[in-house]
Amino acid sequence: xxxxxxxxxxxxxxxxxxxxxxxxxxxxxxxxxxxxxxxxxxxxxxxxxxxxxxxxxxxxxxxxxxxxxxxxxxxxxxxxxxxxxxxxxxxxxxxxxxxxxxxxxxxxxxxxxxxxxxxxxxxxxxxxxxxxxxxxxxxxxxxxxxxxxxxxxxxxxxxxxxxxxxxxxxxxxxxxxxxxxxxxxxxxxxxxxxxxxxxxxxxxxxxxxxxxxxxxxxxxxxxxxxxxxxxxxxxxxxxxxxxxxxxxxxxxxxxxxxxxxxxxxxxxxxxxxxxxxxxxxxxxxxxxxxxxxxxxxxxxxxxxxxxxxxxxxxxxxxxxxxxxxxxxxxxxxxxxxxxxxxxxxxxxxxxxxxxxxxxxxxxxxxxxxxxxxxxxxxxxxxxxxxxxxxxxxxxxxxxxxxxxxxxxxxxxxxxxxxxxxxxxxxxxxxxxxxxxxxxxxxxxxxxxxxxxxxxxxxxxxxxxxxxxxxxxxxxxxxxxxxxxxxxxxxxxxxxxxxxxxxxxxxxxxxxxxxxxxxxxxxxxxxxxxxxxxxxxxxxxxxxxxxxxxxxxxxxxxxxxxxxxxxxxxxxxxxxxxxxxxxxxxxxxxxxxxxxxxxxxxxxxxxxxxxxxx
Length: 613
Known about the structure:
Layout: E1 3-8, H1 13-23, E2 31-37, E3 42-48, H2 51-59, H3 65-69, E4 72-78, E5 93-94, E6 100-105, H4 111-120, H5 130-141, H6 146-154, E7 161-167, E8 173-179, E9 184-187, E10 192-195, E11 207-210, E12 215-220, E13 223-228, E14 238-240, H7 256-262, H8 264-272, E15 276-277, E16 282-283, H9 292-297, E17 300-305, H10 308-324, E18 328-332, H11 333-336, E19 347-353, H12 359-370, E20 374-379, H13 385-390, E21 393-395, H14 408-428, H15 432-443, H16 445-453, H17 456-463, E22 471-476, H18 480-495, E23 498-503, E24 521-525, H19 531-542, E25 548-553, H20 557-562, E26 565-569, H21 574-595
Parallel strand pairs: 17-18, 17-19, 19-20, 20-21, 22-23, 22-24, 24-25, 25-26
Antiparallel strand pairs: 1-4, 1-10, 2-3, 2-4, 5-6, 6-7, 7-8, 8-12, 9-10, 9-11, 11-14, 12-13, 15-16
């Protein structure tokens, strides 16, 4: 969601902070700001809208020595929660006379009570934000020791936060802290760069320390001291960021989303590399640390996730039940801890999150651990909170995903979930020969995707016929039901077309009432069990004048005749056909959005990493 960048060291801070903000633009935001400090002065600059507006504002201050010489500062991109997107509500926020300056991600749940108390103490508020409450609260405790003031303030906070702040009369010293909102500290030579996302620091260093919840760090130059809120000194191990700055560039593509769609064959190969043993007919998932005897003892798989990860989890549920013969379920992570879930020591709870920071999924992890379940993470970001708190799981190795709409993370999640299903299946009931075939089917996925990507121009032409619509249905059965859900999600995210995904059998249980000429239907018609029944649904749609786009298996003449438009995908078993069918819909959604002139990489109101509930 919001983005934080802070710097202290020996270089001019402004260029580093601006570059960091630009690196965080993909997260979604509505305003930006920066604060710089030196021995002689401290100033805050804020602008509504894009980082470019802030840069333009700063360009009008060319004579400022502070902008040229300051070696310490904080910066922020805001995604509105409390208060509309205005310059006043933008971060950083400051106490009177810029004594304390602070940026904040998260939500302070008791801000109203604290605001009332601070107003009674004489503080005036210039914004509608909960963050301004925090900066005044820190100021109220400040007595020439910014560290002590922050600790005392945070002990009164209910809610989540990732913060970076400084005091005017202690230039060069940053205080950073986290609870529920990620903070990473990049370590350099006599310098440090703090951020909410590693993408903001990768140009400067690969060595990073990730704060845990209730950590508070004192950062000055290259010195980093980490303590807890009870003032206990702790050690956090440094990690190496495993991707290069070039991986986060567009590389000649018009949009990050298109680049990431085309990166999927290699991303999936990275996700499965070294994890498939064809001779043994099994998956090698060392991160799960489960011996066959332990796998046999596990009697249920519970997948928790949100959004795209939830859709991927459905594929994992179907595959685990089909091949391993054990119960599996998918849970919306936001509901998991609130409905008192029934899990125990013989359940594996698999938490799926691209960022590894999704607040609802992290809460589900903690609830499952509290109830004694074995918990593992399936995340893309090394060193992320879910990865650290679960202590075991599988990294996707998909590389950075910059576009808000997830593409390669989903297909890598599905590929890994199929490997999880294979590992469970071999421990429970799958034969060696069937295991070898399953392993080979997973290894074939990248080539299937390449064959779909080769049809990009054809899919773009199909998309031209759907630009005029403002609503759409997606339908599918079995393994293709999650594809329908994901396809609808992608279309609505980036084109703003109101799209809904349904199980094809549900069409006649209500949604069919909405079918008309202005309501197109996208039908998943891959060859396999259930196709004939979905074809029946297609005929029902056609009888009500709805235009139908079919995702069909190459050479399926019957399906071609049944639909108005079609996209052909390679023949594959349905459990792996999920991936090429999804990629076809990613390209379809991309081209519809492009033709409608939508801001594809940064759709309105959306954020890449949802770190608040």
